[in-house]
Amino acid sequence: MNQKQKHDIKRKMAVLKHADTTTNVSKTCRYFGISRQTFYNWRNAYKGKGEIGLINSKPCPRNLNLRTPKHIEEKVIYLRKTYHFGPRRISMYMERYHGIKISSSGARYV
After folding, report:
1. 28 burial class (0-12, 13-18, 19+ CB within 10 angstroms)?
2. 59 falls within a domain
3. Measured between alpha carbons, how far is 81 from 72 in angstroms, rounded to an integer?
4. Domain hosting residue 79, numbered range
5. 44 and 70 part of one domain
6. Are residue 7 and residue 27 in the same domain, yes or no?
7. Over the stretch 89-104, which tens digit does the pLDDT of each residue have?
8. How many domains does the chain have?
9. Residue 94 near residue 100, CB atoms below 8 Å
């Protein structure tokens, strides 16, 4: 656990303790500048997992299997830098001259 995570947990614990002492969630949320939904998310995470539940985590792991293959990415970047093609033109060019099907949004995200 790094220093930033410790500081974040300490802040969230302060919010939860303040709510326990005042017994008024609305005033606590107003005082700390958070929404009630955020407060209840923190409280449920604390009840479920303890302090470990208060650590900010990414919502889901990155799925590298869905990533565009490296050789296609290199071609898309080359076309964009050299000829300044947009995503639609890149997708049409790749299909016509290279036989590679890539959507225009896929070309844009590369």
Report:
1. buried
2. no
3. 14
4. 64-109
5. no
6. yes
7. 999 999 999 999 999 9
8. 2
9. yes
E strands present in 36-105: none
What does the block give as tokens for 15?
């919010």
Contact 66, 103 (CB under 8 A): no
DSSP H or E run through 105:
helix 104-109
Per the CB < 8 A criterion, the answer to whether 96 and 107 are in contact is: no
Do both 34 and 75 map to the same domain? Answer: no
58 — phi, psi (to 5°)?
-70, 150
Structure tokens at 80: 């964009």
pLDDT tens digits, 8-45: 999 999 999 999 999 999 999 999 999 999 999 999 99
Same domain, 41 and 22: yes
- Assess whether 32 and 75 both reside in one domain: no
